[in-house]
């Protein structure tokens, strides 16, 4: 056999420059930059209220006891294998996840009109849904609430869909801009896709009431809009999984079509397991079957098939009456802590006489509070008090412990006073 001499390295750039020389430095992603800054800060009182992760009173990562219990069982199951799942994930996980959102008696499920596929957490459930719509739906425009979860525009536009916004929140009154929402959806392009947060709107913590959802539903159906729900906080708003799915169930049982991206990151604390699902409610079982076949073609080149572990945990909890009960009890306790911390923060600000009306903190729901603090006040909190949060004034109530509330209230008080014109302080 002829001896092959090692080839001389080909010199493409005679000056030795990288082939990637022209790449520009991308800006930091704000929520990760905030976390990095927090991690570097040596101050013992520092607080991280930026990232959407529920923590314990001790500020530690919260792994649910029911999840730990299931993981022990899974680890002891020597018959479990690690082979690939089907492209659409674990069938039992899909069935139980659909029932959790649409209700076990859902007519759409009974009539086999719901397609559910296991996806890689909430983010990829949204992305797979967006890719599906880009490929198979005639209208390529998505209306997002203003404001919305920071990754929504990335996930939706990455699929090639065009973004528009609808009014959702009134920054002056700090409540839902219901009139603005109705006007904007009333004049949206016919057939356009509309993204809704099923409950616990991120970042505002402001949700429509049941009556308002019903009005929205009627308008959406009259105008032929296609609703796409993002369900990332089921159970964390009211403490009840059924109540928090009301918006989805209204649309899921009216005979019309809709999409739902679901995440178990927050309500089961499975953040790093990346477990969620995408459901598409169709008009007929036959359409649903064809939709499912096309979803496989969307998923195959994205990640081929989803991971096992998170789906195994969720399935074990959803299918066992005792484990389900344990989960709902823990979820209720998490939700009750959110309500208690909100109340404590509100009381502290009132007791201190911090200028302004802070009642929105206790009216808002779920994990987040849109405090109404402006960027300068947020910068002040970080600079003077080592408190890290989004520059839009959103805080993660789930990241705040009762112990830390007095410190946080002092900091807000100071920030608000320091931003008032000196004439008003006399
Ligand atoms: C509204 C909303 N949707 C989706 C997600 C993404 O969640 P996941 O971690 O499951 O991808 C988040 C995360 O914060 C969120 O707030």
From TrEMBL:
Cofactors named for this entry: pyridoxal 5'-phosphate
Entry's EC annotation: 2.6.1.1
Gene Ontology CC, one term: mitochondrion
Keyword Transmembrane tagged: no
Top-rank lineage group of the source organism: Eukaryota
Alphabetized UniProt keyword annotations: Aminotransferase, Pyridoxal phosphate, Transferase
PANTHER family found in the cross-reference section: ASPARTATE AMINOTRANSFERASE
Protein name: Aspartate aminotransferase
Entry's Gene Ontology molecular function annotations: L-aspartate:2-oxoglutarate aminotransferase activity; pyridoxal phosphate binding
Record-level GO BP terms: amino acid metabolic process
UniProt keyword annotation of Transferase present: yes
């Amino acid at each position: 056999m002829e001896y092959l001499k090692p080839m001389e390295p080909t010199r493409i750039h005679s000056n030795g420059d990288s082939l990637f020389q022209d790449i520009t430095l991308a800006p930091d992603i704000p929520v990760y930059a905030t976390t990095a800054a927090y991690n570097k800060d040596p101050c013992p009182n520092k607080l991280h209220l930026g990232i959407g992760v529920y923590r314990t009173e001790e500020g530690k990562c919260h792994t649910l006891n029911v999840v730990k219990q299931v993981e022990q069982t899974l680890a002891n199951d020597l018959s479990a294998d690690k082979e690939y799942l089907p492209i659409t994930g674990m069938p039992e996980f899909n069935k139980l996840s659909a029932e959790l959102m649409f209700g076990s008696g859902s007519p759409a499920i009974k009539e086999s009109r719901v397609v559910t596929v296991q996806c890689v957490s909430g983010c990829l459930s949204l992305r797979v849904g967006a890719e599906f719509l880009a490929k198979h739906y005639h209208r390529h425009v998505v209306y997002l609430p203003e404001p919305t979860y920071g990754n929504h525009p990335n996930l939706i536009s990455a699929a090639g869909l065009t973004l528009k916004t609808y009014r959702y929140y009134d920054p002056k009154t700090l409540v839902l801009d219901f009139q603005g929402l109705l006007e904007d959806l009333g004049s949206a392009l016919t057939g356009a896709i509309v993204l809704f947060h099923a409950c616990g709107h991120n970042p505002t913590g402001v949700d429509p009431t049941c009556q308002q959802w019903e009005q929205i539903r009627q308008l959406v159906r009259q105008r032929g809009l296609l609703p796409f729900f993002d369900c990332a906080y089921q159970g964390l708003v009211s403490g009840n999984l059924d109540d928090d799915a009301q918006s989805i169930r209204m649309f899921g049982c009216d005979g019309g079509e809709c999409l739902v991206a679901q995440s178990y990151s927050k309500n089961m604390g499975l953040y790093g397991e990346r477990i969620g699902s995408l459901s598409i409610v169709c008009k007929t079982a036959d359409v649903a079957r064809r939709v499912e076949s096309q979803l496989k073609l969307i998923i195959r080149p994205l990640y081929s098939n989803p991971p096992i572990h998170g789906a195994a945990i969720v399935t074990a909890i959803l299918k066992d009456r005792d484990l389900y009960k344990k989960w709902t009890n823990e979820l209720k306790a998490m939700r009750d802590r959110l309500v208690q911390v909100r109340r404590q923060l509100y009381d502290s600000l009132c007791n201190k006489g911090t200028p302004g009306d802070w009642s929105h903190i206790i009216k808002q729901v779920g994990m987040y509070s849109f405090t109404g603090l402006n960027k300068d006040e947020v910068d002040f909190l970080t600079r003077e008090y080592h408190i890290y949060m989004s520059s839009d004034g959103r805080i993660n109530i789930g990241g705040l412990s009762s112990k830390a509330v007095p410190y946080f209230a002092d900091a807000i008080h100071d920030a608000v006073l320091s931003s008032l014109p000196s004439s008003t302080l006399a």
